[in-house]
Amino acid sequence: MGQESFTAQKRGGGAAATLPTTNGGRPARSVSSLLPRGRQIHKTFNNIKITILCGFVTILVLRGTIGLGNLVSSESDAVNQHLIEETNRVLDEIRSDKDPDDLDNPSEPEYNPNVTYTLGPKITNWDQERKSWLDRNPDFPNYVNGKARILLVTGSPPNPCDNSIGDHYLLKAIKNKIDYCRLHGIEIVYNMAHLDKELAGYWAKLPLIRRLMLSHPEVEWIWWMDSDALFTDMVFEVPLKKYDGYNMVIHGYPDLLFDQKSWIAVNTGSFLFRNCQWSLDLLDVWAPMGPKGPVRDEAGRVLTANLKGRPAFEADDQSALIYLFISQRNVWMDKVFVENSYFLHGYWAGLVDRYEEMIEKYHPGLGDERWPFVTHFVGCKPCGSYGDYPVEKCLRSMERAFNFADNQVLKLYGFRHRGLVSTKIKRIRNETVTPLEFVDQLDIRHSEQGSSGSQS
Amino acid sequence: MGQESFTAQKRGGGAAATLPTTNGGRPARSVSSLLPRGRQIHKTFNNIKITILCGFVTILVLRGTIGLGNLVSSESDAVNQHLIEETNRVLDEIRSDKDPDDLDNPSEPEYNPNVTYTLGPKITNWDQERKSWLDRNPDFPNYVNGKARILLVTGSPPNPCDNSIGDHYLLKAIKNKIDYCRLHGIEIVYNMAHLDKELAGYWAKLPLIRRLMLSHPEVEWIWWMDSDALFTDMVFEVPLKKYDGYNMVIHGYPDLLFDQKSWIAVNTGSFLFRNCQWSLDLLDVWAPMGPKGPVRDEAGRVLTANLKGRPAFEADDQSALIYLFISQRNVWMDKVFVENSYFLHGYWAGLVDRYEEMIEKYHPGLGDERWPFVTHFVGCKPCGSYGDYPVEKCLRSMERAFNFADNQVLKLYGFRHRGLVSTKIKRIRNETVTPLEFVDQLDIRHSEQGSSGSQS
């Protein structure tokens, strides 16, 4: 509609501009043949006047419309418009904040091609340091009742999304994570700050994960999860026992990784890192491809040349990790568990349309293609302006995933969404005077004991 | 700017419409005096033609602009515009979802003036029921290491905000709550569903709190907090020991309540309810003023007539609670702790401009006017279109409160915001090879033991 109207408006403007000379002029000319010279001059003069006036109109009209931003078609719209402008003024101010220390700010070192980028001074004895800290701080154990302490880390940019609806889906995504983490005793850190200007974008998780490992020695596993990934199995738990001998757990396929060298062999949208020296070392060798500008661009060319199916673009954290796994296989892979027995990361396109079928045939707690643990909206970029998929499809699919998961949470309270694209909920049972019966039956944390079979 | 351009555009349209008859006509008339009759007819005919054509232009131009929604002034804007429209289409679909069960949906009973509204069947023996459940479920104790289990409850509407920036500040508000609750071992429920159509708006917290009490017998205290309230003291803890003999803790002033009968004597933006029969009973007598429509409107008149300073509007949950406290003082007040020794709720207007002064003079952990525990943006309605304060002031103030609190969290990681309205952060210390020193110094959960003096 915007584009259609846009052309309509152009047509209008165009017509106004050309009218006097073509249409306004024609009849005058046909008359002129009947007129003596002096009158003809007078006529031409009139036509010019009309031309100028119509031109003036055109200018007025265009001036009235171009650069109008949000056109108001009613009083209330006018108010909202005003609101949006006030808002933008504040945001511009907040964004464009200057600081005297900007120059000598250590978080923005000068780019020097001769120096390899580092996340910070090399730490070499983390395992011992951490162990002795844990011994000194019995109030902060890394295992509670035999369960490893997990810190789920996610985040989004400090400023509002380009696409205003993006913030709404960031809100739904964190609500979804709050629910899962409450049910499974997992702590959450939601990051909204750029810790390192050089590692902006998808690389930002690296300095963040390192910082959190060093600041939270009590945490055994750091679980990174993208803001566009949703938990869609609220019962399933990561089978940590299975990873006792490993320091990293990431979703992927070994054959895609080592036989095909595919750039999507693993996915960095949801992975776990053990808090240990090995992980710090991996971060140290992973980060140097990340610095924005010439380094990241050049690294991108190397990755595209070496990874199957990779389009030509700057280095991304996922391709860099895959390249590292392939080129230094012997160094790292004995401690990396490439998981695909359940969806630690599940590609949304194959899943969101099958939720009804899953509800009909299966039940939460399976975590695999029957009931995906995580549905990840790769390529949707709800917070950016340009994703790889139509916004419409992305939003409807995210709404479906959110509600599919939310139904598993609402069940305890006696509600469910009216449909998978419906924000409205309905009762699935009436209020009762014996509510505790349902707590025993439906609280996921109780059934958890049962599903903890998935832990070994 | 929207309005100004709107008038400009109207002027343009108007000019285009009147041009041919006034300007286009005048010269023709002046010539006509010199012309014989036949030619004059021809002239008039020409003028009519021009009139029609210019009129046509006007229509084109107006059609091209009126009802244009978002006018696009550049290619990229055109794309964003298209994006917004796709978005709205999905949202409209999601909002306007119909359901066959809509009629027999128990969550929307027919309004019957002869029946007093209830939150559900009367529960009479909750204390015993809950106690025996706790005995049966030692894995879900209501006290952990001597600390009562708290569930913080907040929420926002299921659909995007009227003002698109609203969702961004809802996101920052929940990030702020996630931080506080992680640091103090408090669980969070973020509600985005309308549990009860009759108790929409500020009344929605009542059925939600009741439902959560009945579904979470392991929780000792339910802490309601509005979405527009931020934790601004990340160290302070609610001194629960102080409330051992009480079932409700709410910020307010006894003299305003009982002497002045002020409608702002207490604030329901942040209060605690003990999970017990008494609380269910209070909810039962509190709710009947809430049902949307005639009941809420009539109740509003009663409240305005009885509470000092209350404007005339439908019944709100806060006024209703105050009215209940005043009219049934003997029934309830011996179990209600009206707290004002710290800011369980802190009115933003008096606080946000003093943050720099607080940083200079005081430190987190005080919770009172020296370092407010909670800063509550009463009347800002960032998610609605119409607040009682200028959007600009509200947004800047919320940004300041968020960053003031965030600095207390970032300190552990070695960063702070460049200014209180800056989303950018800067290092306050360089990366080190001995990070654990700072954990011992700066982790709020350690200093907590110290500040737990505030608990008794």
TrEMBL record, chains A, B:
It is an enzyme of class 2 (transferase). It catalyses: Transfers an alpha-D-xylosyl residue from UDP-D-xylose to a glucose residue in xyloglucan, forming an alpha-(1->6)-D-xylosyl-D-glucose linkage. Its main location: Golgi. Keywords: Glycoprotein, Glycosyltransferase, Golgi apparatus, Membrane, Signal-anchor, Transferase, Transmembrane, Transmembrane helix. InterPro entries: Glyco_trans_34, Nucleotide-diphossugar_trans. Its EC number is 2.4.2.39. The keyword Transferase applies. Residues 1-32, 91-112 are annotated as: Disordered. One of its GO terms (cellular component) is Golgi membrane. It is a single-pass type II membrane protein. GO terms for biological process: xyloglucan biosynthetic process. It is found in: Golgi apparatus membrane. GO terms for molecular function: hexosyltransferase activity; xyloglucan 6-xylosyltransferase activity. Belongs to the glycosyltransferase 34 family. This is xyloglucan 6-xylosyltransferase. It comes from Escallonia rubra. The lineage of its organism: Eukaryota, Viridiplantae, Streptophyta, Embryophyta, Tracheophyta.
